[in-house]
Amino acid sequence: IDTIPYDTLYLDTTGLTRDQFQTSGISTGAGVFFSSPKFKVDATLNHKYWRNQNVGMKRDTNEFFLHSNLWLKLGERLTLHNEFYFNLIGATGEIKEHARLNFKMWDNLSLTGQLRFENVYPTPYQRFHTSNYLKWEIQDLEMQQKIQVAGALKWGNKNHVQANVIWTSVNNGRYFIDNQWRQDTLDFVSIGALNIKGAYHLGKFSFYPSATLRFMSSNFSLQPILSTLNRLAYTTTLFKSGKLGFSVGVDVGYESSYNYMAYHEVYDVYQPFQSLDKVPELIQLNAFLALSIDEFRFFVKGENISYLFQDATTRIDPNYPIMPLLLRLGITWDFFN
After folding, report:
1. Per mean pLDDT, which range of 61-70, 201-210, 246-255, 276-285 is the poorest?
2. Distance CA 276, CA 259 (A)
């Protein structure tokens, strides 16, 4: 019986070689820092040395880069944070820019937004790797560009509703395909999502709805277009003393059909998988119970109860079926208040 699942062995024919790889590094920097109640900034010039060791083969690089952080407070309700990175030597031209904005318009209405841009080379692990079963090496390094825009609007406090939107576009992306990292397959990928969630409390009942609508380019339709997960809970105290806390609830969810990706067990990554097979529409059902008295708390949760009435052979991956019924138990005891 052939117990080796790969046709080509690169290091030995027994298949017993220990595939060892590690990227280690050390970084130092010097710069300036200024702080005031409404304005803070730090800017540094940095040096980083990294070395990749892979079954006896060693590669290393020295890099010099600029890095800065800026915090700005405009009044009592508006704050801005900006982080910037630019590589001068070693990975020349790499840029990372991340800006975040928080605006509390009223006490019960807030707006957040962020913009992220990256233009970076592959990581050492993505550039070259050798193991007994797989190996790859990118000869001509090309940068990957990613731009991400996100925002959120929240109204309310204890009872609230929140809308989140995020859009990500990747050009010249790196994907694990055919057992190697490649940049010559999916030139441009664009995906986005709109999420609406909230919380509503009425007496001893609590309701937490959440729904997500996704948008994606035709070459990366590997997510459910619609998914939702909603929790209904009842919380009270038992007996006259009211010391025993009691909470019970259910989670009810739904996911629309979608094409799945293939999970690679050896390298713990997902591969875009071109197949006509799809994950069908799925229902999710969970239930939980929690008890508490003083510093002692106990909970039990049944996850994937929906497994009992759905087809157990349904695949979410070429080699993996849907999750079975799970029972989780937990106990905590705080010895100090």
Report:
1. 276-285
2. 8
pLDDT tens digits for range 62-92: 999 999 999 999 888 999 999 999 999 999 9
Label residue 179 exposed, middle or buried (CB < 10 Å: 0-12, 13-18, 19+): middle
Residue type, 139: Q
Top-confidence residue, 178 or 27: 27
- Residue 11 pLDDT exceeds 80: no
pLDDT for 14: 60
- On the question of pLDDT at 278 being above 80, the answer is yes
User: Could you say which DSSP state residue 161 is in?
Assistant: E
Residue 1 pLDDT: 37
How far is it, in rounded angstroms, from Cα 126 to Cα 291? 48
- Asked if residue 251 lies in contact with residue 243, where contact means CB atoms within 8 angstroms, the answer is no
State how far the Cα of 96 lies from the Cα of 87, in Å rounded to an integer.
9
Q: What is the largest CA-CA distance in the chain?
A: 74
